[in-house]
Each structure stands twice: as structure tokens, then as C-alpha cells.
């Protein structure tokens, strides 16, 4: 190894160690302070230390859409806030409950639908959450009583299970007190929801095309859970970070899109035609990642939109 290479490797190692000390370790201690003061109640089997270790390992291998390490590109404030959002929600990226995504220089933690299910169980007292897909040929019936849907019949034959024959999907949330809530989405509603995604769901080979059944389950689960997350007490520290994570992700995505479009804006200028052949313009295709949804497993286990730029939660938080 050359002297220059060794020096570069050493500098990178020192930078990572500094980020871990100044960001990751500080966030871990902050969460423990919330718990000790009684401001935060984490799931009994949730280890902040283990979640932080998992997050740190994942962050070291996470890159942005231009394949640059997020720990080098993103601001330390946004890294700290993303980790804090993860920990306060009691989520662990090693369990596929969320992902770290860079939008420009902002790092955000976005829940997966596994994470949304876990948070809903904590916030709304849900005992179980499950979703099923309805295919053409299934015997499917439900009734509506007092505005609530109740599945009365769903008989499915194995020969009906075909991603090209999806007609609907439904999610049922069962609560500790015996109540239940069911949301049903038609295939048209599911596709309309997908059309708002930046993941290009209609593209051949996309996650939506390859795993239509699981993506349909994910979509209906997110919509059903959103009803209870949106109606929960906004004053809690947990709900502050649930809402903050969603709002920051949406804001960062919009700002990144605006910046990218600004960089690609064409400016008309007058010029004299020369003999040389103009060079061809380079085009750049945005590539994004989305998790491949797995079948949900049973686990035991919005504050109003914040205006303006993202602030470090260590300086401005919900009264802590």
C-alpha cells in the first residue's frame, strides 16, 4: 500500500470515528435521557444500543443516488436527527423497519411498512395487523356497519393467485380491546397510489411489477395504519418524531427534486454556428431504491406540519 493510500484510509477512518463519537454516541445518550426522565417509553424488548450499532453498520455502507457515501455527503445535523427519529420510534433498520435515504445533503429515516406496523401497535394499542390480496375468481364479501367494514367471506383457490388477476387488497387491524378496523382498496385505488411514487412502478423489472402482491399489501397496510397514526395524541414525544420523520422526508425530497431540476435547466443563448460538430448532451437517469416487501410477520411488540427548514432536534424540540 502506497503512503498516499495509507494516509487516505487513515483519514477516512478518523472521520468515521469522529462522526460516531459526535453523532451516534450522542444520540444514543440523548434517547437514554428521554427514557430516564419518563418522556419516552420504548418497547420492552427494544435495545437502543443494539439499534444504534445496527444503524451505524448500515450507514457506513449506504450511498446516495450518485453512489457517494451518505456519511460524507450528508450534514451531521441531518444524520443525528435521522438516528433520533429511528430510536424514538423504537425501530431497528436491521429488522427492515426503516431505511436511511439521502436527499441532497439531508439524511432522513423512512419507515418501511414493517416499521409502520410496529409504531401503530405502540401508538394505537393494536394487537395484530394483517393484509390479504383478493384475486379474480375469489369469493369475497364484506358488510358495512356504522361506517366500518367487516370481512364476512373470503374463499381463495390456489389457481386464482396470479399477480395479473389482482382485484383488491384489504388490511385488518385488531386491537387489544377486541375492536377491529378493516380498510379495502380496489386495484384501481392501489394503482392510483402507486402512480404518485417516484420509483417508476410501470417500468418493466420494477419492484411493483415483480412483486405486485406484496406491494399491494404494503400499500393497503400503510393506508390503514395512517388513519390511526394521524388520529393519535400529537403531544407525545413519540408522535412528534413519527410526524417529524414523515414531514422532513417529504420536504427533503421536494428540495432535492427542485435542486436537480435547476441543475438540468436549459438556457437558450445566441451563438455563431461553427464548422465543428457540437458534442452530444449527456443525459442522466435518476436511479432510486425501494425495499422488496416481505410477507408481514407478527411482532410483539401528525404534530401539525413543521414549517421552514429542518432544525436540529437537540436545539429545538417538543419541550425537552
Please tell me what the overall shape is.
globular
Mean pLDDT: 80
Provide the β-strand percentage band. 15-25%
Domain count, please report it: 2
How would a textbook summarize the main sheet?
A: 3 strands, antiparallel
Query: Helix fraction?
Result: 40-55%
Q: Could you describe the 3D structure shown?
A:
This protein has 320 residues and is α+β, with helices and mostly antiparallel strands. The chain has nine helices and seven strands, in the order H-H-H-H-E-E-H-E-E-E-E-E-H-H-H-H. The protein has a three-stranded antiparallel β-sheet with strand order 3-6-7. A two-stranded antiparallel sheet has the order 1-2. It has a two-stranded antiparallel ribbon with strand order 4-5.
Topology:
Blueprint: H1 3-36, H2 48-59, H3 70-73, H4 76-88, E1 98-103, E2 106-111, H5 113-124, E3 126-135, E4 139-145, E5 148-155, E6 166-175, E7 180-186, H6 187-195, H7 207-210, H8 212-230, H9 237-263
Antiparallel strand pairs: 1-2, 3-6, 4-5, 6-7
Helix pairs in contact: 1-2, 1-4, 4-9, 5-8
Concise description?
The chain is built from 9 helices and 7 strands, in the order ααααββαβββββαααα.
Q: Which features does this protein show?
A:
2 domains, globular, alpha+beta, 320 residues, 9 helices, two-stranded antiparallel sheet, three-stranded antiparallel sheet, 7 strands
Amino acid at each position: 500500500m502506497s503512503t498516499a493510500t495509507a494516509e487516505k484510509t487513515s483519514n477516512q477512518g478518523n472521520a468515521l470515528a469522529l462522526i460516531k463519537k459526535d453523532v451516534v454516541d450522542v444520540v444514543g445518550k440523548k434517547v437514554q435521557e428521554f427514557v430516564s426522565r419518563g418522556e419516552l417509553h420504548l418497547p420492552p424488548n427494544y435495545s437502543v444500543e443494539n439499534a444504534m450499532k445496527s444503524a451505524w453498520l448500515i450507514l457506513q455502507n449506504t450511498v446516495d443516488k450518485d453512489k457517494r457515501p451518505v456519511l460524507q455527503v450528508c450534514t451531521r445535523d441531518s444524520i443525528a436527527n435521522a438516528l433520533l427519529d429511528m430510536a424514538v420510534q423504537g425501530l431497528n433498520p436491521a429488522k427492515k423497519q426503516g431505511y436511511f435515504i439521502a436527499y441532497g445533503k439531508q439524511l432522513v429515516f423512512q419507515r418501511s411498512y414493517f416499521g409502520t406496523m410496529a409504531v401503530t401497535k405502540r401508538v394505537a394499542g393494536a394487537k395484530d395487523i394483517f393484509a390479504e390480496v383478493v384475486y379474480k375468481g375469489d369469493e369475497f364479501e364484506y358488510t358495512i356497519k356504522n361506517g366500518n367494514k367487516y370481512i364476512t367471506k373470503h374463499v381463495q383457490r390456489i389457481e386464482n393467485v396470479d399477480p395479473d388477476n389482482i382485484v383488491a387488497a384489504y388490511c385488518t387491524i385488531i386491537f387489544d380491546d377486541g375492536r377491529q378496523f378493516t380498510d379495502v382498496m380496489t386495484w384501481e385505488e392501489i394503482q392510483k397510489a402507486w402512480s404518485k411514487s417516484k420509483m417508476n412502478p410501470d417500468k418493466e423489472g420494477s419492484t411493483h411489477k415483480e412483486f405486485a402482491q406484496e406491494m399491494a399489501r404494503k400499500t393497503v397496510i400503510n393506508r390503514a395504519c395512517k388513519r390511526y397514526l394521524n388520529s393519535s395524541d400529537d403531544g407525545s414525544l413519540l408522535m412528534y418524531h413519527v410526524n417529524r420523520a414523515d414531514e422532513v422526508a417529504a420536504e427533503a425530497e421536494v428540495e432535492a427534486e427542485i435542486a436537480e431540476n435547476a441543475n438540468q435547466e436549459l438556457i437558450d443563448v445566441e451563438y455563431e454556428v461553427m464548422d465543428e460538430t457540437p458534442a452530444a448532451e449527456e443525459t442522466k437517469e435518476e436511479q432510486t431504491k425501494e425495499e422488496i416487501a416481505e410477507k408481514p410477520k407478527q411482532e410483539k411488540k401528525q404534530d401539525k406540519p413543521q414549517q421552514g427548514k429542518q432544525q436540529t432536534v437537540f436545539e429545538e424540540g417538543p419541550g425537552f
